[in-house]
């Protein structure tokens, strides 16, 4: 489309989000009142105290009965018609429930399933101002695991300590790797904590969704070693200090540890976790295992299959040394390297054969992504000359990308490093009237028409739009349903890798749960509904140690999603400006989801958020 039209949800409340100044919020309220719509709720530019924002919001429905739905209980067993009774947040009966004084929900014609579990998200910053982790909840997700890929917001040294290990480095890594802006952090993430337990205490009030939190290896390493964490291996004393932090985090409620084999920081250097040797990794895994639980999540060096296979082998060693479960994400199919997925699955099977507990993660959606030069893009990291310009303030960036003297150098660099991306790139949203003719067209086609190279065409269009053009890459990776369905159904693969809450100006990771049912169950017929639900509920709950969740059975938590199997869908991506300070992100709004219930409280009702907040740390 020309311009930036953003859809607002109608007919319900919106979660609290930080926005621009109060007069802008008031102006928007008046505008949408005239249109008969409910505006998005915004914070002011200076947010209120945390206690004011989230106090007195925790609530559960004391009694709730869901009647007449098709119960798909998360075990993989065949579905059946029946009722579910929830009292004080816990399921007390499943099957035929007699007369009761509980609030009744009519689920006839609907599927009643356990709330979905998303094991790979990055909501660590967002949960500070958005206790609903939008939009994951409206896609039926009742539990998210965050702190993946070695990044968490704790432990962190206070600014007053005068010791390296503070928030500045964490913010820069999150900004570079997860696409959360510095201004958003400044406005909405107070860093009034130091330990991981302090952070959990900060986010606990008013949670609308259940949260499992991993401790980031890079955060722990930087807390202990400061700048040296990116220069050398740790000493024995430093490793013991990290292990003490790990023990403290597990005692406070952490789910486990995350690390990375591939990520780079704001200066293009390996993140701290990549400097760790096996002594350190084994010690941390053993410290975690002392709690009797814990998982290790990793992101592999996926740009080199041989290194990725080495990463999987190392995870096998770590699992055998400590007894913990290890998870590596993502395992995907690419037509550029069509055998790599098979080699990765075979390596996972090797680890299982030697007694290690190592799983991969994969997602149902194709790896579709957008590049907007006014935002950030990890796809441009390999193009050093472009990546350097992406760090400039927007006004300077526009001038730099439009410089005719620099243009040949920029074009050559792009076509040398990312030509496969340029071949698959099409023009999405535009702003300048003269760019309207390019909507939906591939850069290659425009290149043939104009006689200019694809990179030249891209820069011409982007500069005319003030760099706000949306360039789309669709169906290039993980897009063959025949192959992807094999990966998704493999017993050593968990449904994960959504990245919800990260890369927010490049794609929306939320919605994989709906996509799984919409396409792989309903459209492609590659998996039964019961199998798909089990893969997103009972299975991750069991393997990730999320106790008391994932199935519909007496004694389990009252986490439930009610949906129409014939219409459930993830929805289209929408570019909105509802992040703190008016920052942008992509979102998706699900269809076909009737209700989402968290610990017995209806949090989403027919697409609208309620005031109920009953989420917990799991």
From TrEMBL:
Region annotated Disordered, chain positions: 1-27
Pfam families for the chain: Amidohydro_3 (PF07969)
Keywords, comma-separated and alphabetical: Hydrolase
Name assigned to this protein: Amidohydrolase
Residues forming coiled coils: none
Domain of life: Bacteria
Biased composition (Basic and acidic residues): 1-13
Matches recorded under InterPro entries: Amidohydro_3, Metal-dep_hydrolase_composite, Metal_Hydrolase, Metallo-dep_Hydrolases_sf
MF (Gene Ontology): hydrolase activity, acting on carbon-nitrogen (but not peptide) bonds, in cyclic amides
PANTHER family noted in UniProt: COLLAPSIN RESPONSE MEDIATOR PROTEIN, HYDRANTOINASE/DIHYDROPYRIMIDINASE FAMILY MEMBER
Gene Ontology cellular-component annotations: cytosol
Domain Amidohydrolase intervals: 103-604
Annotated signal peptide: none
